[in-house]
Amino acid sequence: MFTLPKLPYAYDALEPYIDRMTMEIHYTKHHQGYVDNLNKALEQYPALQDKTLVDLLSNLNSLPEAVRTAIRNQGGGHFNHTLFWPMMKKNGGGNPKGSLAEAINKQFGSFENFQNSFNTAAKGVFGSGWAWLAMDKQGKLMVTSTHNQDATVSLAQKPILGLDVWEHAYYLKYQNKRPDYISAWWHVIDWDHIEDNFRQAGS
Ligand code: MN3
Fold first, then answer.
1. How far is the CA of 202 from the centre of ligand 1 (A)?
2. How far away, in angstroms, is 14 Cα from ligand 1 center?
3. In the chain, where are the structural domains located?
4. Of 41, 91, 107, 155, which cross-links 141 as Cys (Cβ 3.0–4.6 Å)?
C-alpha cells in the first residue's frame, strides 16, 4: 500500500513564503487524502498495488476502466506532491548551477527567460493544476502545465521542477493573488535537488 512520505522540513520552514498553516493542511490533509483514496481505490486490485506510481501513471490506458480515473487523480496527486515537497527547502532560492544551469541557458536563452516562461505557465493554469519544467523524450527541457493532478509522466515527460497552483496551496496566505504566491515560491526552491532530478531524468 502507498504511504505518505516524511516531509523533509518543519511546517514553518518555508515561512514567510509559504505559511505554516497552509503547509500543515496541504501535507496532512490534502496529500494524505490522495494516499488514502488511492489505497482505497486499489483495494480490489492487488496486482496493481505492487506497481510503482510511474508504472501506473505512464500506462493509464492499460488500466481497468473502473479504477483508471481514481489512479489518474489520486495516484497523480500522491505522485505530484511526493515530488513537490523536496523541491523546496528553508533558505532555498537563488539560481540553478552546473549542468542544469547550462541546459536552461541553452534551451531558454537565460534563467530569466525560463522564469518568465514558467511564471506564464503557472499563472495561465485555468482552475487547478501544476506548472512544470520537464524533459521530453528527446531529452530537451520544456515548460508545460497539467490540469488537476495529471502527472507529466502520463505524457512521457519527466518532471524536474513543479509548482502546485491549486488554491489549496496558497489561498490562506495569498487569497486570489496567485502571481504573488508564484513570485514568493522562487525563494524556497532547492536547486541542488532540482539538479539531481535533471541528472536522473537524463540518465
Ligand atoms: Mn496540492
1. 26
2. 15
3. 20-87, 98-202
4. 107
Cα(144) to centroid(ligand 1), Å: 17
How far apart are the CA of 21 and the centre of ligand 1, in A? Answer: 13
DSSP the chain: ---PPPPSS-TTTTTTTS-HHHHHHIIIIIIHHHHHHHHHHTTT-HHHHTS-HHHHHHTGGGS-HHHHHHIIIIIHHHHHHHHHGGGB-TT--S---HHHHHHHHHHHSSHHHHHHHHHHHHHH--SSEEEEEEE-TTS-EEEEEEETT--GGGGT-EEEEEEE-SGGGTHHHHTT-HHHHHHHHGGGB-HHHHHHHHHHHH-
Indicate the CATH number for domain 98-202. Answer: 3.55.40.20
Q: pLDDT-derived band of residue 162, with 50, 70 and 90 as boundaries?
A: very high
The architecture CATH gives domain 20-87:
Orthogonal Bundle (1.10)
Please tell me the pTM assigned to this model. Answer: 0.97
**pLDDT, tens digit, for every residue of 14-24?**
999 999 999 99
Average pLDDT over residues 50-67: 96
Q: Average per-residue pLDDT in the chain?
A: 97
